[in-house]
Design a protein that fits this description.
The chain is an alpha+beta fold. It contains seven helices and seven strands. Helix content is 62%, strand content 13%.
Length: 337
């Protein structure tokens, strides 16, 4: 589809280019012939006055010279237009490819997103349908067995609700503008940590007492929750998740490091893609996510004009976030000194 569109766009580019080239060629031909005729007339006038001859203008010579000059000009313009046609065709194709590439990438991403979303929605629905059909066929099913089926269906519905919520969050982040204000990052991190029922030794936080970022509090809370949840999920229960906050120029640096099985290097560039899961075997299948969390985290960071990167070795994985520091605090500090 896009190859055909590329060729059509190339044809339009080339048509416009050749139209302009032909118009300029005609104009150049007219100007050149006019200049040649004018110069020949001046030459005749100078020759007659110098020689003292009262001869009539040499019309035949003039016409012959103008004809030869016209043919030479036309030939040069034809060669020039052929070069423009070949070079313009190549350039037009490259420009068409470049113009359509973002649209093609967006179309491919949308197609993958639709396909992946359909797959994720179809899986729990298929499980629910199978369990219900089996229960309906079993005439001797007990109340306890039916209760188990309903409980299983409820779990699948919960998965669908989570998926729908994450898809809505992605949709909002694609279109909404976030309201920003000064956010105390240490306090926000502590609030997020309290949401997880973990021993005090499980998460180690290193942070100054005051550290303000300029952003949306709800979005940053979601960002921290995703990264901390990811670190807890993919690390041994007896390991430490290290969180460090610090200033870095006009930004605030957030480092979340966890032990455990690392991410293979060829998978690192894709972990922020929607529905991508580096390794589903790294976690319990019952607790398997949808591969949307890190996509949401990446989008939140981009909306804050920040940067989210990841590095991984066989034993340690680290996510690093750069968020804009709240400038109001820096200005206030300068005024007090």
């Amino acid at each position: 589809m896009f190859q055909s569109a590329t060729l059509k766009l190339t044809g339009w580019y080339l048509l416009i280019l050749m139209g302009i080239s032909i118009i300029f060629s005609v104009a150049i031909y007219q100007i050149m012939m006019s200049q040649i005729s004018l110069r020949l007339e001046r030459y005749e006038t100078v020759y007659e006055s110098t020689a003292g001859l009262l001869l009539k203008p040499q019309d035949a010579f003039k016409l012959s010279e103008m004809g030869d000059a016209g043919h030479a000009i036309i030939l040069a313009l034809v060669y020039a237009n052929i070069l423009i046609l070949v070079g313009g065709g190549i350039g037009s194709y490259m420009m068409a490819r470049r113009a359509l590439r973002p649209i093609e990438e967006a179309h491919d991403a949308q197609s993958r997103f639709t396909s992946d979303a359909s797959h994720e929605l179809r899986t729990p629905l298929a499980a629910m349908k199978t369990e219900i059909e089996v229960s309906l066929r079993d005439k001797k099913a007990t109340t306890a067995e039916l209760r188990d089926v309903l409980q299983s269906n409820l779990e699948e519905i919960e998965k669908l609700s989570r998926l729908s919520e994450m898809l809505l969050n992605l949709s909002r982040l694609d279109h909404d503008k976030l309201e920003r204000s000064a956010v105390s990052l240490p306090a926000l991190v502590n609030d997020v940590i309290k949401l997880y029922d973990q021993p005090a030794s499980r998460i180690a936080l290193t942070t100054p007492k005051k550290l303000l970022v300029h952003g949306n509090k709800t979005a940053i809370r979601e960002l921290l929750s995703i990264l901390i949840d990811n670190a807890l999920k993919y690390s041994p229960v007896d390991s430490i998740v290290a969180i460090a906050l610090s200033s870095k120029g006009k930004s605030v640096l957030v480092s979340i490091k966890n032990e455990g099985e690392g991410i293979e290097p060829h998978k690192l560039p894709h972990i922020f893609d929607r529905f991508y899961q580096a390794d589903a075997s790294r976690t319990d299948q019952t607790d398997r996510g949808f591969g949307l969390g890190l996509s949401i985290a990446k989008k939140i960071v981009e909306l804050h004009n920040g940067e989210l990167t990841v590095s991984s070795s066989p034993d340690v994985t680290e996510f690093t976030v750069l968020l804009p520091r709240h400038e109001g605090r820096a200005k206030k500090a300068k005024n007090t000194t």
